[in-house]
Amino acid sequence: MSRKSGENKIAKLISRYENMLNSNTQSFFDSHEFEDIADHYIEKGLLGEAMGSMEMASTQYPFSANFLIKKAQILTILERLPEAEKTLDIAESLEPSNPDLHIAKGSILSKKRKHQEALQHFHKAQNFSESPIDVYPFIAFEYQCLGRFQDAIKYLENFLNNEPEDDIAIFNIAYCFERLDAYNDAIDFFKTLIEKSPYCEITWYQLGLFYNKIKDYKQAIIALDYAILIDECFTAGYHEKARSLTQLGKTKEAINTYLLTFAFENATGYTYLKIGLCYKELSSYKQAIRYFTKACHEDPQLSEAWMEIGLCYEATGSIEEGLHYIKKAVNLSPDDLEYLYIQTKIHYKTGLYNEAELGYKKLIKLGCESPIIWMEYAHLMKKLNETKEAISLLKKGLEHNKNHSELLVRLGAYLFLDGQEDLARKYLHMANTINPEINIQLFNHIPSLQNNDDFNKLLNFK
To answer: Most Cβ neighbours (<10 Å): which of 105, 147, 305, 372?
Structure first.
């Protein structure tokens, strides 16, 4: 039966069923028709109607386990698990070897995160089923939940050998390969699967993804081109191909590839953002800002687009104008450490030292313990003639970054400038022991110390 004739048959069945309900009459439906009616309503999200059809089916077929199982499946979707379990217990008393019964029981146990018990029921379903391979995706999913990805792959491979175009199984096996970092195994598997079913765009797409993961971007583009050739509306293929082209430095081609997606889907903030990033890579800041602005218009909550506008303005020397957009990005993502750090750096660069100090304080409060944060914050305090505070900050930085040579040497230098020569000597020698070249970095930071005789004596330079 063709798909169209099948849809027409279901439409007529639903019409007959609903006419019966509207006229408050009784009509006979065979058991398969009742199951088709319930499945139709479930697919449409009309769970109340699906439940009603099963209640009616149970009155016509009171000893059928299938309708009880279907009712339990609906109850499971509605998260009414205790009712579903009681219904399945009744079904089990009628037909204990029904494979759908054990699939339904396993699904409930899976929802409860009782994956080992769920597996027991799925294996029972496998043993009772006339088509045991149909149960393999359920078994594989439980193994995924248990972190047993190799076992999951085994079942998914067997399933896909029989159903090579099942989208969900393809995505799940790709997920398992990725969790195992088994990128080459994934490539080998998908190439074999393509030999069985060469016209499945999802398989070509996954092959392209894994080629990208091993940085074989040329092979990725070949695979993605096949995905697009099979289905020209498959926009995910265009996006991934554009990413591959970007990695190869073919930025203009990447832009054109992103633009092709607009023929098949509505423009999104994400796509405009990616195009803007390409123009930024080309240093075409005016065009980049244009597309980042489009991204903000499509998705005002897309903080990355606001940030990129600010960075483009900064790159062209319009720092104060850029700061406006950077603040907008930080307001949208206040806990994003990278955004906050960029804003703090620009506050310092534009002489907004109080704002910069607040930025460093917040970075530390949010758990940023990178040595560069402590050094920059201390440098700011030193610039504000708060040398003792700078020293205190470097000491705190060392608590989080033991024996970091640059923190040590800066602490030694600040102690020297504060007149604490004995302590300065201690930290300077510790730094030099760890990294004998560290003084060069220090002199880049504080050039005046390079010709300071007292400081050089402290270092035994003279």
So the answer is: 305
CA angle 451, 457, 458 (to 5 degrees): 110
CA distance 161 to 142: 20
Q: What is the pLDDT of residue 4?
A: 59
Burial class for 195, CB neighbours closer than 10 Å (0-12, 13-18, 19+) = exposed
Q: Report the C-alpha gap between 340 and 146 in whole angstroms.
A: 38
Q: Which CATH number fits domain 393-462: 3.30.1490, 1.25.40, 3.30.300, 3.10.20?
A: 1.25.40
What tokens does 286 get? 């005016």
- For residue 390, what are the CA distances in angstroms to 15, 375, 438? 79, 9, 19
Q: How many whole angstroms separate alpha carbon 148 and alpha carbon 145? A: 8
pLDDT value at residue 336: 94
Q: pLDDT value at position 448?
A: 86
Which are the contacts of 427, defined by CB distance < 8 A and separation ≥ 6?
Answer: 408, 409, 411, 412, 415
What per-residue string of b and e applies to 37-65 under the rule 16 or more CB within 10 Å gives b?
A: bbebbbeeeeeebbbbbbebbbeebeebb
d(CA 304, CA 310): 10
Q: What's residue 190's pLDDT?
A: 98
The CATH number fitting domain 268-368, selected from 3.90.1150.10, 1.10.3720.10, 3.90.180.10, 1.25.40.10 = 1.25.40.10
> How crowded is residue 23: how many other Cβ atoms within 10 Å of its Cβ?
9
pLDDT in tens, 207-243: 999 999 999 999 999 999 999 999 999 999 999 999 9
Please check whether residue 69 is in contact with residue 81, taking contact to mean a CB–CB distance below 8 angstroms.
Answer: no
Question: What is d(CA 449, CA 444) in angstroms, rounded to the nearest whole number?
Answer: 10
Separation of alpha carbons 320 and 322, rounded Å? 5
Residue 381, CA distances (Å) to 219, 254, 399, 455 in order: 52, 45, 19, 21
Domain ranges of the chain: 268-368, 393-462
Which are the contacts of 415, defined by CB distance < 8 A and separation ≥ 6? 391, 421, 423, 424, 427
Spatial separation of the C-alpha atoms in residues 122 and 104, rounded to whole Å = 9
Pairwise CA distance, residues 230 & 213, whole Å: 23
pLDDT for 461 equals: 44
> 31-43 and 47-60 helices cross at what angle (nearest 10)?
170
Taking residue 317's Cβ as centre, other Cβ atoms within 10 Å add up to 8
Residues 6+ apart with CB under 8 A from 64: 31, 57, 58, 94
pTM: 0.83
